[in-house]
Specification:
CATH architecture of the largest domain: 3-Layer(aba) Sandwich
CATH topology of the largest domain: Rossmann fold
Structural class: alpha/beta
Strand content: 5-15%
Low-confidence stretches: none
Distance between the termini: 49 Å
Helix content: 40-55%
Number of domains: 2
Bound molecules: NADPH dihydro-nicotinamide-adenine-dinucleotide phosphate, 1,3-dihydroxyacetonephosphate
Mean pLDDT: 97
Number of helices: 16
Length: about 325
């Protein structure tokens, strides 16, 4: 089967590099100049510096070439996905579309599979998610991810696995996409705790209560508990809340310490905090940490006020 990765950011490039070690892969970027640079230098210097692009990886800005592949990995940021799917709906019809984005679409409250179903006729929607930094995947370090697809996906699992990238299968697309989306929000909170100097014990408490929030909202939206406690939920929450490689964590740390942060960096948790807070309020589900992250990132409250409001909540059973 032929594979194309759509979106040549850090993650799309890393996945394309990893899969190209097994066989031919096409990597599509929207900028012709970026493609020219990558083809000449055999490196994505802007998004994934220091990683050589294998000869089996073809880079192109020609969308028709990319869309001729059978399996398409969508590796653009979540808030860009609906526009992309709409623009190319006809060519995408009937394909296997594997979302690699982690987020909730702000305009609709949908995850990637909902957007695919809404915009593309007859497509097979899958989600590839879990604890993995682009640089680790590109370097061939051992990584385990969740591949979620509602139909029988053993073939897809084999197609997208490599000797160092180990995929576990599930049919719970809702749980997989919500785990990946929600952990970004809580990584901002964990970064804030560390940036504000509140300590490792506070971070552990926050991560645990974040996991309780993640489960509460995701189960209400139809996710399965075992998915939340697997790689795409608990696994990715742990990675992202504890590593400064995470951009969401680093944004939180900058908020906590009062430092600036480059607004051009992709931080999916900001829009997702807003979408999640809305979803939770609509359904009457308590998600105080997510509400705090929304208020902090919208600069409606400061760090000490946020911490005080969490600590002043009524005492209750765990
Ligand atoms: N980086 C990581 O370690 C991981 C990232 N992810 C997820 O992958 C997704 C992408 O993140 P990542 O690759 O890191 O982001 P980056 O910031 O590295 O790159 C984003 C890429 O998306 C492209 N892009 C933006 N808008 C569009 C569009 N409308 N059509 C096509 N391409 C577009 C950008 O192109 P341009 O340069 O032209 O703007 C850029 O190449 C996110 O949802 C993230 O959560 C998941 C796991 C790990
Ligand atoms: O999703 C990721 C790790 O699994 C990457 O996290 P960031 O987007 O916060 O860098």
């Amino acid at each position: 089967m032929s594979i194309a990765v759509l979106g040549a950011g850090a993650f799309g490039t890393a996945l394309a590099v990893s899969l190209a070690r097994k066989g031919p892969v096409t990597l599509w970027a929207r900028g012709a100049e970026q493609v020219h640079e990558m083809a000449e230098s055999r490196e994505n210097a802007r998004r994934l510096p220091g990683v050589k692009l294998p000869e089996t990886l073809t880079v192109t800005s020609d969308i028709e070439t990319a869309l001729s592949a059978e399996t398409l990995l969508l590796a653009m940021p979540m808030q860009q996905m609906a526009g992309f799917l709409q623009a190319h709906a006809e060519a995408l019809a009937g394909k296997t579309l594997v979302s690699c984005a982690k987020g909730i679409d702000l305009a609709t409250g949908q995850g990637p599979t909902g957007l695919i179903r809404a915009h593309v006729a007859g497509a097979r929607a899958a989600v590839l998610t879990g604890p993995s930094f682009a640089a680790d995947i590109a370097r061939g370090l051992p990584t385990a991810l969740t591949l979620a697809c509602t139909d029988h996906s053993e073939e897809l699992q084999a197609e997208l696995s490599t000797p160092t990238l180990r995929l576990y299968r599930t049919t719970d697309t809702t749980g997989a996409e919500l785990g990946g989306a929600l952990k970004n929000v809580y990584a901002i909170a964990a970064g804030t705790v560390i940036g504000a100097g509140l300590g490792e014990s506070a971070r552990a408490a926050l991560m645990t209560r974040s996991f309780a929030e993640m489960q509460r909202i995701a189960l209400a939206l139809g996710a399965r508990p075992e998915t939340l406690s697997g790689l795409s939920g608990f696994g990715d929450l742990v990675l992202t809340c504890t590593s400064a490689q995470s951009r969401n964590f680093r944004l939180g740390r900058a908020i906590g310490s009062g430092e600036g942060f480059d607004p051009s960096i992709t931080v999916e948790g900001v829009a997702t905090a807003k979408a999640l807070d809305r979803l939770a309020r609509e359904r009457g589900i308590e998600t105080p940490i997510a509400a705090m992250v929304r208020a902090l990132t919208e600069e409606k409250i400061g760090v000490s006020e946020a911490m005080q409001s969490l600590l002043a909540r009524p005492l209750k059973e765990e």
